Amino acid sequence: MTHLERPSRQQQTDSYARIAAEFPPGDRTLSTLLTRQAEKYRDKPLVTCGDARWSFEQTARIAQTYARYLAHAGVTAGDRVAIHSGNRAEFLQVYLGCAWLGAIATPINTAFRGAQLAHVMNNAEPKLLVVESGFLPVYDDLPEGTRVPGLIWRIEDDQIVTGQGDLAAVGAELGDVVPCTTPGQTVAILYTSGTTGPSKGVCCPQAQMFWWGVYSARALGVREGDVLMTTLPVFHTNALNTFYQALLNGCEYVLEPKFSASRFWDRARETGATVTYLLGAMAAILMAQPARGNDRDHSVRVALGGGVPGPMQAPFLERFGVPLVDGYASTETNFVFYTPAPSDHPGSMGYLAPGAEAMIVDEHQTPVPDGVAGELLLRPTEPYSFASGYFGMAEKTVEAWQNLWFHTGDRVQREPEGYYRFIDRTKDAIRRRGENVSSWEVEQVILSHPAIKACAAYPVPSELGEEEVAVALQLKPGVEFDELDLIKYAESRLAYFAVPRFLRRVDDMPLTENGKVKKVVLRSDGIVDGMWDRDQSGYKIRR
Length: 543
Hints:
Shape: globular
Largest sheet: 7 strands, mixed
Strand order of the largest sheet: 2-1-11-10-12-13-14
Number of helices: 16
Number of strands: 28
CATH superfamily of one domain: ANL, C-terminal domain
CATH topology of one domain: GMP Synthetase, Chain A, domain 3
């Protein structure tokens, strides 16, 4: 095969069946996967992250070693370990140790600040916080009473400082930790942005991450020997499950520090990447870069193209020689819809794949016919391949998993030809640069500003694909107000990606009979004359 050829659908199905057979239900835990694959691939490279380069055998030993370190610190199975770090090897070391020990890794979005971060701390109640030293100052500004653990490890100078002595020395005092995890045990709590309330911690079983690796690899046509390069943040499920794709298929996992449009293809060439991962805005940014004579000079065979607008997919393929796989997935579910590459219906979700059942229903939860939009409901056919619920939020769990179906809150339409199209979100969320923005959280911050009487956050289209954050503002009478001052106020209290770009002053909010803001009116208006645009002001948000 040339680097542009992809495995056939039958080859993808055969690979999926092979891996499922190699790891029967009781073996779908990370400790078993690491042990089995270390025996199979030994000194073959598995992880490349900065200066760190680990073979399959070394990665298994790292998991065992960090399980000892965690146990020595008093962490036991079921304890939460918060990891506040960017894309670096220390994140993976702690995650692997947690998974081996049976502790629950709890990654923190590095953009979280203030009330957002406090909510995660109070909800997860971690036993240990492992934090990159550069993020320590944000913990000084948390609201009083936030439950930050007393046990803190710092990541600095490419090592973990525990305050308990040298890790290697204390670890040597203990014997190996014998893993006693099961496929249904929670291996990670991944916080997704709330839609009408605070962020929810999604409980991801060991086997769900196994199936993420299987399903994602199936959609992308991953095969043994591939080099999987991701620049996406490892605290989200995408970059995390890419590790499982590599582990299960005998591939190399290359975790880059962050996305750089100017360096992306250079790094793909330098790493020998054959598969890579993009979101809609990233593809648009790459297309906006000046054309180079070597745009096709790389080994990338295929890329994930989640949310890339349909009209952009063919030009992307023409310029870079890389077909994009679109689809549908969520932290609560799995990668269960995907398109061919190139897509036969660009911009669609693609087709439902084995591993899940889907139903589209009306407001009465009655199935609708093809060609009619309704809410998408999903349920798995493999045990523990979906999330088990929301941590510490029993009512939200019951609400989302009504009648044993997961209610996605997304309006979807199945076409007579069998493919699915995403219509819009019934939940009040905004999708910006690959991040879910909670309009509720944005509104709480804006409302705390002394000049604001009422506000409503909502999405408007972005020229880069996905959406931008807009806020309608009703001011208190007689106040002096400057839009840039409000942006600076929000910047210190919100994740950078949640800070509004557009501000619209209104005399009165459009309200329903029950006094709720009719956001559908604001959304349908879109970007109107007189709307203040942060980008046009020249102000740059700090990250």
